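Hi all, posting the design record for the shared folder.

TITLE: backbone redesign
STEP: 1 of 1
STRUCTURE INPUT:
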């Protein structure tokens, strides 16, 4: 009976500890993402890129923007050097964890100079610290305006599609 009671107590403590860890990690991730966006708005180049893993990927709103961290740094540096890169503020964010609690993913709606955008990404815990490993930024398009947007982007993206088709032949 004592063993059963001990097992039940350990299970309750473990469950509570896991919930507390998830809540703490979710807070850390929200703080990281808010700080990351703030670092861009304040043109803090090193702070911004130090929040990303060395092998991070950033996918921007343009179909050609699929950058490994060094290429993204090269693209971003002139913007940061001007004193302000871009300004994103989270309107909402949802954070999820894998079973190991060492990988998390999120989606967020952002208030930006492009109006509402969506960000999503993957974070990994390295030596107890969360880092951004993969980030995707996309513009939102109201469903009623999709046709008009397609008409605007079709000439550019038709050429892009042809280029990809040719390179895959």
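Okay, here is what came back for every position:
SEQUENCE:
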């Amino acid at each position: 009976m004592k063993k059963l009671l001990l097992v039940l107590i350990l299970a309750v403590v473990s469950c509570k500890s896991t919930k507390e860890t998830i809540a703490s990690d979710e807070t850390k991730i929200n703080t990281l993402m808010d700080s990351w966006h703030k670092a861009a708005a304040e043109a803090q180049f090193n702070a911004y890129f130090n929040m990303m893993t060395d092998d991070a990927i950033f996918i921007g709103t343009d179909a050609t923007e699929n950058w490994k961290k060094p290429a993204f740094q090269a693209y971003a540096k002139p913007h940061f050097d001007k004193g302000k890169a871009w300004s994103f503020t989270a309107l909402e964010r949802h954070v999820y964890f894998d079973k190991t609690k060492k990988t998390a993913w999120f989606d967020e709606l952002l208030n930006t100079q492009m109006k509402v955008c969506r960000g999503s990404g993957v974070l990994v815990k390295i030596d107890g610290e969360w880092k951004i490993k993969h980030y995707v930024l996309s513009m939102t398009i109201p469903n009623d305006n999709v046709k008009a947007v397609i008409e605007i982007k079709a000439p550019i993206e038709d050429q892009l599609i042809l280029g990809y088709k040719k390179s895959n032949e």
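COMMENT: The chain has a mean pLDDT of 92.
Let me know if anyone wants the other runs.
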